[in-house]
Amino acid sequence: MTEKIENEKLLAMYKSMVTIRLFETRVSELFAAGKLPGFIHLYIGEEAVATGVCAHLKGQDYITSTHRGHGHLIAKGGDLNMMMAELYGKRTGYCKGKGGSMHIADVDLGILGANGIVGGGPPIAAGAAFGIKYQGGDGVVACFFGDAASNQGTFHEGLNLASVWKLPVIFVCENNLYGISVSQARHQNISDVADRANAYDIPGVVVDGNDVMAVYEAAGEAIKRARAGKGPSLIECKTYRWRGHFEGDPTPYRPKSEVDAWMKKDPIPRFEVALKEMGVVTDEGIAAIKKEISEKVEAAVKFSEESAWPALQEILDDVYTGGSVAV
Amino acid sequence: MVTVGIIPNPASGKDIRRLIAHGSVFDNQEKVNIVRRVMLGLQSAGVDNVIIMPDYFGIGRRALDGVQLKMAADILEMSIEANQDDSTRAAGMMREMGVGAVVTLGGDGTNRAVAKEIGDVPMMPISTGTNNVFPQMIEGTLAGMAAGIVAGKLLPLNETAQRQLRLDVMRDGELIDIALVDVVVSDDIFIGSRAIWDMTKVRELVLTRASPSNIGLSSVGGSLFCPRLDRQHGVYIQIGDGDSLVELTAPIAPGLVETMHVTKFRLLEIGMSVPVHVKPSILALDGEREVKVAAGDDIHVALTNHGPYVIDTHRTMDAAARHGLLRRMKTPEISSTRCLLCTLGVCQDPPLQCLIEEN
Question: Would you tell me how many other CB atoms lie within 10 Å of the CB of residue B27?
Answer without folding.
Answer: 18
